[in-house]
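I'm curious: can you give me some protein's one-letter sequence along with its backbone structure tokens because I've never seen that pairing?
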Amino acid sequence: MQIINRDQYLSILKDFKDQQIIKVITGVRRCGKSTLFEIYKNYLNKIGIENNQIISINFEDADYEKLQDRKKLYTYIKSKLVKGKKTYIFLDEIQNVNEFEKLVDSLYINKDIDLYITGSNAFLLSGELATLLTGRYIEIKMLPLSFKEYLEAFSDKTDLNRKFRNYLRYSSFPQAIEIYKINPNNINLFLDSIYNTILFKDVMQRKNITDKNILERVTKYLYDNIGNRTSIKKISDNIEGINIKISYNTISNYIDCLIDSYLIYKVQRYDIKGKEYLKTQEKYYAVDIGLRYHILGQTSNRDMGHILENIVYLELLRRGYKVYIGKYDELEIDFVAKKPENTIYYQVALTTRTNNEKDNNIINRELKPLQKINDNYPKYILTLDDDLDADYDGIKKINVLDWLLNDKE
């Protein structure tokens, strides 16, 4: 399998090497967490770290089933430590270990250990572990491939529009590229495996959910409505066969579980004028558009505008922003992207091109919310238009593919 460099994540691991802080990598199953470990271990070997200084265990591997008992695992690790040298410990899918938080705490206090762990569920950093390790870990939130990373798998970098369509249709999961190169028709088998594993292992099994039918209906509804403001009531009203009297708490719990498994992302609204976070009418986005195609089937290619929004949202997460839906009076800004030192506003549209003067409403509709904002932060309109970039009194319109491939703001 071709290994795609995940430089963004790798650089963080390098920066924190030998620091007495636990490196926690989280993200949806099959997004590349284990491969990142392999890339990083190769780097350690290249800079002189011997193989006996590296302990690597994947708890999805049946060979290590006996080590899912934390006491046995601790004894095993202690027996492998190299005296007088730093030992690098990689524990993959550690949520499978009984009372893993106690194990992690015990390993952390050993100054001769550099500890790296992964998990495919937000449960990993909730509850007791987060309390126990406050201030002692960093979280690296991993996503499937960006479009820029996706292109690395192809020697031919021409025809970007077609490759972008393939990126959407055939998934951004790293292994999907290899399957696509052999036979694109097998992508659905791969995605079906991911989807069912997440639903069963990371949602139903972990949260003791027994009604798979309702869980799948909620998942499909959210995937079908990416980019639309929604509410628990709206979901209840629009999913046929749900008993509304008992469904509110159930649906709310199911959505939380889907978020914890990284299948979906919830985006809160932010009142720009009032500078406050709103607690209603959130939007949801999918972790992978190819998975959305698989779940929804033929109806999934409609509403390309919201699909484009989904891609921009995930890219903003990759770039380290906290992302919100903007509200200014009654107008909406697609994304408010925040870092401590910066804020950027984005509108996303398939096109703002016009065929006649009357159609100028398209560009005016996108500009109006941004023009209302009275600050000096950057403002962008991202579209699939392939004409020259434009500037509307400081509001820049750029091609979204150019933006995706140029990750320097």
Summary: The domain at 7-141 is CATH 3.40.50.300 (Rossmann fold). The radius of gyration is 23 Å. The mean pLDDT is 92.
